[in-house]
Amino acid sequence: MGNVVMNASVSVDGFIAAENDDPGPLFEWLVSGDVPLDDSGVLNVSQASYDHIRPYWDQIGVTFAGRHVFDITDGWDGTPPSGIDHVVVVTHQPPPEGWNPNAPFHFVDGVEAAVTKAKELAGGRTVEVAAGDIGGQVFAAGLVDEVRMDLVPVLLGSGKRYFGSVDSQHLLEDPDIVVQGNRVLHLRYRMRR
């Protein structure tokens, strides 16, 4: 069974976006290099970032996020991001009116059900959950196997927290991956069980 990984770019002070969902400079590292990360022609990173990110992206079978992320991205126009096979959307609401029922998006009520559905769809590949409120809920429920952070050298001062509303102590293992790219430090922590 694949790992459940919480992942996002994050400021040094722990934010993944401003209150208005603007990530500000958090994604600059994705356009600060000369190595294409995908076929979009937009994402170009350092060689070190490519060597770290590309193999990870190739392992992801399913990503899931909350309805808020789904809505602000307009459901990625019905196509999962970054070549991922399926998206699981945690929501208490039905799909939007006119939504294509054949799009590989699955609307599920609750994080436990979302993890179960995502693992089923992933077929042993990695399940990625976006950091923030939903990621924090999955983390607090003990359903995350590892935490990945693309740590960007900026202070946002306030905004949406990487771990959402998690307000209790949780121990992680020491970082087992530390990779320095252009304008980013890639970190991976396994959960201490």
UniProtKB/TrEMBL annotation:
One Pfam family assigned to this protein is RibD_C
Q: Which domain of life is it from?
A: Bacteria
Q: Where is the Bacterial bifunctional deaminase-reductase C-terminal domain?
A: 112-183
InterPro entries in the record, alphabetically? DHFR-like_dom_sf, RibDG_C
Gene3D superfamilies, sorted:
Dihydrofolate Reductase, subunit A
Protein name as it appears in the record: Dihydrofolate reductase family protein
Record lineage:
Bacteria, Bacillati, Actinomycetota, Actinomycetes, Micrococcales
